[in-house]
Amino acid sequence: MDTKKKKKAGEKRLLGQILYALFGLLASRICVMGYYPFVPAFYAACCLDKKKNLLLYIGLFAGMGLSMPVASVVKYLFSLLVLGIAIRFYVWANRRCSGWTAGVIAGITTIAMNCSGLIVTQVGKRELILGISEGIAVFGLAVLFHYVFEMGTQLADSLGQSGNEKEEAFSDSGRFDAQGRIHAFADAVDELSAAFASMGKRSYRGQPESLAVLEQEITGKLCGGCDACAICMEQQKPDFYARIRQMLTAVVSHSPKEEIISKNYIEDCPHYSGMVEEAIWAFSRMELNEAWYRRLQENRMVIAGQLDAMSSALLDMDQGIKNVDARSKLLLARINFEAREYGLVAEQLHIYEDRDGRRMITAQVASKWGGGIPAKNYRKALERATGIAIRLQKDARNILTQEAVSITAYEDTCFYALSGVASETKEGSGMSGDNFSLFTLENGHYHICLSDGMGSGPDAFRESDMVVELMEKFLEAGFPAETAIRMMNSAMVLKGENESYSTLDFASLDLYSGHLELTKIGAAASFVCHNHKVSCLTSPSLPAGVDASYSGDLLERNLTHGDFLVMVTDGVLEYLHVKNPEEKLAEMISEINTENAGTFASTLMEHVMLFTGGHAMDDMTIIVTGIWEK
User: Are 630 and 412 in contact (CB under 8 A)?
Assistant: First the structure.
């Protein structure tokens, strides 16, 4: 297969060389008022696009020898020499040369050759004007040839790529489709989730069932081995089992042993006290087993929830980003052309769109002429080709060399967000139990995660740190926010040490639209400030780790330029010592006049500390996030 491809590529290269030789022959035979502007223009485009080859020179020089006078041949040969050296020198100095630059060089070289010749021959004004006009024509033709040659080549490559892709797909027909595999894997995970969920739906014993089990165990163990069993059964048969049931009911109700013995539910029984002790011990064992089994069932349900969340995430990946190369052939060619104008080569170029129609462009990018080219030049080339603002991935290399590197570019966001943080640690505690994380993902969403661990100190810090870290890892792995919250919450349920829980206050801000989604799990109220008018966002809920099926309450708002989001932990509100702490904090927020998020947070903390008498009775954290249009 590789030999066949190389042979086809060689044939294609030879055909291209023959075509350029014919174009050179044709260009050297076109005369306009005694001048041949197509020759330097065509040669400049060939120099820039690296189309020079032996056949090209043969065709060009053959045409010049057949159609030009000897004086013109000498002039144009010298002009081509100077033009080639000038373009190579410019490329060496700048590591790039656009079509416009090559056109300018070709035009100036032609004018210089014409004017120097006219000065020697001392001809009139008409010839001087014609010489300058030829230079202008050469400039325009060089730019046109470069655009036609380069765009034609890129379009041919883009259109031919679909055929190659079909051929590869046919030859690799046994290979599994990636999206199909993801979908099948998601279905399998979903079925596994249903299996775990069905195992976790076992009903627990009620009191009547527990009494029946205890009654069987006590009578079989004690009464069955007693010599007086037959007498008791014969004399007290009508109410014997009713008396045992009364005693067992008292045991199940957790009545004290002494009280059960003193009531003597079964009269004249020589083993009554032992029966009570045996019943209490048997019921305690039953309760312990039931508790462990209940925990096992809960863990099964938690695992089922995690598997279900993973299945949803896989389906989301399967239906999210789609390749649109097939309907973007012209754009691919345009990107390749603009990249070359900036001295870069973009290979393995692909265009993707998400479900909102936003573009993502991936490519292997390298310097065309060697040396170092700033990566921002590639961004500029993409912006010129697509007509939209572009941002490169966070870890993109700043300088591009001849070693190709993978770069992913995204349609740029309309807004940017900045956050400021102010915090106070509880007096007497060496470590705050509050934790937070601020990060922007490549999908253009700015995330704020704030967690308050139960209590204060190292234990609370570890709990809240785990919540924040799990959320950040899940989101960076590509899970949707709702799925990430469910998986984090179920992980906290499985951990569940010492009944220690943490709150979660999670904000996701879409920097394309300004849409805010705020999820609260046991968290304090948040506030949105718009033109000094403050609205309160609150939702009562259990903390993280209490209920695995709970994914928080979702609150939504649309933010615009200059709006602020204020998120706080409960320590900020609990010790304001006012009747309505949310209203008071909203009043404080409305009085602050600044566009700096850091200043906003520190000023608000100062106001809060005035109401607490300067004492931090609990860990306090304030995060202020502002949004502005780019």
Answer: yes
Let me know: does 460 contact 426? Beta carbons within 8 Å: no
| pLDDT one-digit tens code per residue, 584-607 | 999 999 999 999 999 999 999 999
Band (3; pLDDT cuts 50, 70, 90): low
Most trustworthy range by pLDDT among 122-131, 145-154, 443-452: 443-452
**Four-residue CA torsion sign, 512, 516, 517, 520:** positive
Determine how many CB atoms are found less than 10 A away from the CB of residue 173.
7
**Contact criterion met (CB below 8 Å) for 337 and 150:** yes
pLDDT bucket at 50, cuts 50 / 70 / 90: low
Rounded Cα distance, 406 and 262, in Å: 84
Whether 597 contacts 541, CB under 8 Å: no
Name the packing angle between helices 99-121 and 70-94 (round to 10°): 140
Residue 70 gets the label, from left (phi > 0), alpha (psi -120 to 50) or beta, of: alpha
What is the bridge-based pairing of β-strands 445-452 and 434-440? antiparallel
**Burial (CB count within 10 angstroms: exposed 0-12, middle 13-18, buried 19+), residue 622:** buried
Q: Give me the phi and psi of 598, to 5 degrees please.
A: -65, -45
Q: Which residues pair with 622 in a beta bridge?
A: 422, 568
Contacts of 260 (CB under 8 A, 6+ apart): 247, 250, 251, 276
Using a cut of 0.70, tell me whether the model's pTM lies above it: no
Partner residues linked to 529 by β-bridges: 534, 564
**CA separation for the pair 408, 382 (Å, rounded):** 11
Residue from 452, 468, 368 nearest 48 by CA:
368
Measured CA distances, 473 to 302, 363, 440, 517 (Å): 19, 26, 13, 19
Instruction: Write a three-state SS string for 79-113.
Output: HHHHHHHHHHHHHHHHCCCCHHHHHHHHHHHHHHH
* Angstrom distance (rounded) from CA 523 to CA 403: 50
* Dihedral angle, C-alpha 210, 212, 216, 219, nearest 10 °: 100
